[in-house]
Amino acid sequence: MIVKPRIRGFICTTAHPTGCAAHVQEQIQYVKSQPSLREGGAKRVLVLGCSGGYGLSSRIVSAFGCGAATLGVSFEKAPEENRTATAGWYNNVAFEAAAAQEGLYAKTLDGDAFSDAMKQRVIERIQKDLGQIDLLVYSLASPVRQHPRTCVLHRSSIKPLGEALHIKSVHVDRGEVIEVDLEPATPEETANTVAVMGGEDWEFWIEALGSAGLLATGFRTLAFTYIGTELTWPIYWEGTLGKAKEDLDRAAKAITPRLQALKGEARVAVLKAIVSQASSAIPVVPLYVALLFRVMKDRGLHEDCVRHIQRMFATQLASGATLRLDDVGRIRMDDVELGEEIQAEVRRRWALVNTGNLAELGDLSGFREDFLRIFGFGFSGVDYDAEVDPTLGIPQPAA
Ligand code: NAD
Fold it and tell me: pTM (2 decimals)?
C-alpha cells in the first residue's frame, strides 16, 4: 500500500514503516556521532515505554551510547495486510534490527506494562537473558490504566484544578490562535489521573523486580516529569497532570530506601518540552512549544528528544557525574528551557501572539514537522509514493 498521513485531531492514524525506520536510524546516527558513554554506563537496561518519545531515545542512548543490552516494554498495535501498525511498532522493529547488527541484545515485549502478567513476562526474560538490570527507565505515557489489584479501569483527565480556565491555545491544523475554556477536574477525575500517571505502578515494578532479586548493585531508576513555567502551569503543573507528577516525587522517595542495600537510587528527571504523541494531546502546550522552539532555535539552543536524552546520560548518569538536583532531589534537565532570558522572551511573545503573527513569533511549522516525523513522515530519502508492505513481511498471529 501507499501510506500517507491521516490526521485525526492530535493523532495520526497511519504510520510509515520506512519513515519510522529512518527516524530510529537518525537518532542512532546522532548518538554514534557523540563521545562514547560505555565507560561506567549502564550495561543492562529495562525501558518501560520504549517505543516512542523519551523512552525510545533512552533506549537508543543506552544501546548505542553505553553499549547496553536493552529490554523494552511498549503497548503498540501490530499491522494488518491493509492497515499500518502504530509508529512505535515499526520503531521497535527498526531498533531491534539495528541493535542486532551491532551485536547488541535487544528484546521488546508488547503489552500492558501496568499488568502483573507483563511484570511476570519481564521477570522471566531478565532471569533467562540478562540475570539482573542496572537501570530502569520509566517512560510510560498512557490515558488509561487497569489497576492490577482492584481491576478498576482508571482514565486520566487533562484538566485544571479549582476554577474553570480561560486560556490561549492553538488549533494546530488550522494554524489559528484561539482561546479555550477548560472546566476544572472533579476530585474523582484528579484521583484517576494520579492512578494512571502517578508513581504507584513504578513502585510495583521495583517491588516485583526487587523481590525476584533482579536489581544489580548500584541499580538506578528514573521516571520522567515535566514542570514548565507559569504559562503552562494552569493546565499542567497546577492541574491534574501536576498532581500525578507530584505523586512520582512521592514514589521516588518511597523507592530509594528500598534500594539502600544495593546502594541504588530512584530519581525523577525533569525533562524539556518536546513534541510527542503524549504532549500533542495536552491543550495549550502546542502553542507554548511553538513559541519556545522559535526562541530556542533562534539562539541555537534547540534540543530535540534524542539530543536531550543524550545530554542527560552524558552529564547526569555517567560515572562521576555531578548531579544537577533541585530541592526535591529531582534531576533538572530543563535548565536551558527555563533559562531566564528564554522564558522572558517566550512570555513576551505569549502576550502578543495571534493568528496573524504566529508564523513570525512561533514555530508552528516546526511543531507540525516534528509531529509528522513521530509517524515516519517527512524524512528525505524516503519515497512516500512507493508501495510498502505494512507488515514488513513479518507474519502476525491471528487475532
Ligand atoms: P510517548 O507518547 O512518546 O511514549 C509513551 C510510551 O508509553 C510508548 O512507548 C507507549 O507504547 C508506552 N505505553 C503507553 N501505555 C502503555 C502501557 N499500558 N503498557 C506499556 N507501554 C505503554 O510519551 P513521551 O512524551 O515520551 O512521555 C514519556 C514520559 O516523559 C512521560 O512520563 C511524560 O510525562 C514525560 N515527559 C514528556 C515531555 C514531553 O514534552 N513530551 C516532557 C517532559 C516529560
Answer: 0.98
| Distance from residue 136's CA to the centre of ligand 1 (Å) | 14
Q: What is the pLDDT of residues 259-284, one digit of tens each?
A: 999 999 999 999 999 998 888 888 89
Residue 138 has pLDDT above 80, yes or no: yes
For ligand 1, is residue 278 a contact (CB within 6 Å)?
yes
Residue bearing the CA closest to ligand 1, atom 8: 49
CA angle, residues 120, 125, 127, in degrees to nearest 5:
95
pLDDT of residue 398: 65
- What secondary structure does DSSP assign to 179-240, as a single string? EEEEPPPPHHHHHHHHHHHSSHHHHHHHHHHHHTT-EEEEEEEEEEE----TTTTTTTTTSH
Structural domain span for residue 331: 7-374
Ligand 1 centroid to Cα of residue 141, in Å, is 3
The residue whose CA has the least distance to atom 16 of ligand 1 is: 75
Is the residue at 79 inside a domain? yes
Sheet strand arrangement including 215-225: 106-110, 69-74, 44-48, 133-138, 215-225, 265-270, 331-332
**Number of compact structural domains in the chain:** 1
- Residue 48 CA, ligand 1 centroid: distance in Å: 9
Closest CA to 199 of 153, 146, 255: 255
Q: Is 75 in the pocket of ligand 1 (CB under 6 A)?
A: yes
Please report, for the domain that includes residue 111, its CATH number.
3.40.50.720
